[in-house]
Amino acid sequence: MDAVNETQSGLAGTLKTIIRTNGPMNIAAWMAHCLADPERGYYRSGEPIGAAGDFITAPEVSQMFGEIVGAWLIDLWQQQGSPKRLNLVELGPGRGTLMADILRVAKLDADFSAAVSVHMVETGTALRKAQEAALAPFSCPKDWHESLASVPDGPFYLIANEFFDALPVRQFVRQDGSWAERMIGLDAAGDFTFGFGPGRPERAPEGAAHGDVFEERPAALPVMDALSSRIARNGGAALIVDYGHAETGFGDTLQAVSHHRYADPLKDPGEVDLTAHVDFAALADAAEAGGAAVHGPMCQGEFLLRLGLGERAERLGFGRSEAEQAALRSDVIRLASPDEMGTLFKVLAVTPPGLQPPPFHEGS
After folding, report:
1. Does the domain formed by 28-167+222-259+270-351 have CATH 3.40.50.150?
2. Mean pLDDT score of the chain
3. Which residues fall within 8 angstroms of residue 63, CB to CB, at 6 or more apart?
């Protein structure tokens, strides 16, 4: 198709113009445009979460997930002397379901509820509206932020559920003893296609074989440094839940999802979700460099079961119909089974040095 005659509208047309003008872009730039374009980015304009969206997160599976996280946060707050003021922060808060469940649990501790100010770090307009509606029943102070940097100082209790997986990654491929960066350009027909350009990773492990892919997520490390340094300085804790690998390694994990099915990451830019697996070892290194203590990662299933997921399901099911009890058992399986979210999803905790949060302990 002739570039002069091409009238394709939307983000795809914009990206083709950028590539024709500046040359191929790396995967990180592609993800940043597709997910965060101010007008047509995936997270800027729509509500992708839930049965009617493209994917379902753990808080949308069951209230039990948020209740356990809320109890975990209260425990860490109590371990640190129950400070009279605290910032309760969520990165990428989705539809507000997780924070609403946490605040509902917080009502069981009047002192915690009185101390809380909620801070939602969210860039999407539609998602902000959903969050405002979800949190409307709660009277605590609430504020929304474009980034973590504008969250006020003070004790800092943070949850990031499926946040880091959406941060852009760069991909490097080992070829004939050296590295090349995977890029996105245009083929002879004017369609998006993968290719290679110069580039090498900063922290790839030794032993890469020909064809191995290594992913780096540059945007994640400053976020981890910022939250860990604040926790080390002012107290608090962070709980990071995401899908990924515990140890740094090789593999192409870039994926696109649309309507709960895998999609082509180069088609329909801005209309499909783009993610890649989280390197928890890299996150842990960044948190320790910021002066905080790191616990885990632990598989999500083990984390939830050790903190009483099964017992909570039994209590919720007491006196209910068989169908309701079966639904609760199904939720437990979805959250904790190795065949579902239980093993792929990991949990990493960040605290000031000297604290030992449940259920992490030596040898876990």
Report:
1. yes
2. 92
3. 101
